[in-house]
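Quick one: structure for this chain?
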Amino acid sequence: MIRLADNWKDYAVLATGDGYKLERWGDVTLLRPDPQVIWGASYDLFSDPRIDAVYRRSEKGGGAWEYRRKIPESWKIGYRDLTFSIKPMGFKHTGLFPEQAVNWDKCSSLIRSAGRKIKVLNLFAYTGGASVALAKAGAEVTHVDAAKGMVERAGENARLSGITSGIRYIVDDCVKFVQREIRRGNQYDAIVMDPPSYGRGPGGEMWKIETGLYPFVKLCTQLLSDNALFVLINSYTTGLQPAVLSNLLTLSLSGRGGKIEAYEVGLPTEEGIPLPCGAGGIYVNE
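Got it. Here's what it folds into:
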């Protein structure tokens, strides 16, 4: 099952093929690599006259942006009642993963219908798409990421969406932060995590998803309140199947009851085919 983020108005996937996706971000059109796009393009995407910038990979690794028109250093796009800052960065990123709107909508709905204040811990929280969405839904959010620049951008996204309180920002290694929160006796009603395939904490801590994720999920369950609402794991790691996330949640949360769902997340395209963008798994205490 694939769940598509199909409620965007300021974002669209225009075309795909030959390892690339052509996207409209507000008034700016970008052509970026995508590892899931292993099919051929229906035309030469690089010749599309709408392109403002292309991210070209280097044979030596990494890559760089090639600008065909002058575009703003950053600009804004909206989703429902949220506003985000978009900025082309190194390694092809723009500061937002639009397919995550699927998870924002699901978790926001759970928070709004809970009938109580929900404390959320958002780990590997990046530029705060989930933090902003869940705070807007009424949650009290603790946002944790090891990259100071990304946490600063999360604060900017919150302000753009009219959020001036309700989010606590932490620059830290996520594993070490969770360990400290356990020692402090702190608890949360919901946990969201979007772990990278590989990563380093601010102190040089190493993270590898294949060996780190299961013990980390088990560790995080020690922070859950007795009446915890949900736990969401998202993964854009190519090849990590939804069933893997389902198994992690089932084994880590055994004895709590509730319901576990796992699914692919993706984006609709103007070609009429879905673009897969990873997997999600959610435990809900119903």
